[in-house]
Amino acid sequence: MNKYEIMFIVKATIESDKIKETCETYKKLLASYKANVVDFKEMGEKKLAYEINGNLNGYYFVMQVEANADAIKEFDRKARIDENMIRHLIIRLDEE
Fold first, then answer.
1. What pTM was computed for the model?
2. For the chain, which terminal residue's Cβ has fewer other Cβ atoms within 10 angstroms, N or C?
């Protein structure tokens, strides 16, 4: 398994319950592929550097994950089509 850092931004205009639900959905998705979420940080609501699809603010999350390539591909696929997700970034961390 490889180590990854995943940052994603959820729309701040939706209700807080829906934000938490979106977050839990992606955690469960990774767990279904036997990925291990090592660290999960809720960074809170922040102003975006520029407007993205009419959004000026977003709710930021960062997680460190140990996962295989299939789990990461599925996360990326789902994140691209999720209307509550503004942006996401997946970085593979090098072994130290």
1. 0.89
2. C
Domain formed by 2-93, architecture: 2-Layer Sandwich (3.30)
Q: How many CA atoms lie within 13 A of 4 on its CB side?
A: 24
CB contact set of 52 (below 8 Å; sequence gap of 6+): 58, 86, 87
Rounded Cα–Cα distance for residues 69 and 72 (Å): 5
Structure confidence at residue 94 (pLDDT): 79
Domain boundaries along the sequence of the chain: 2-93
- HEC readout, 71-86: HHHHHHHHHHHCCCEE
The residues of the chain scoring below 50 in pLDDT are none
Q: What digits encode the pLDDT tens for the residues 35-53?
A: 999 999 999 999 999 999 9
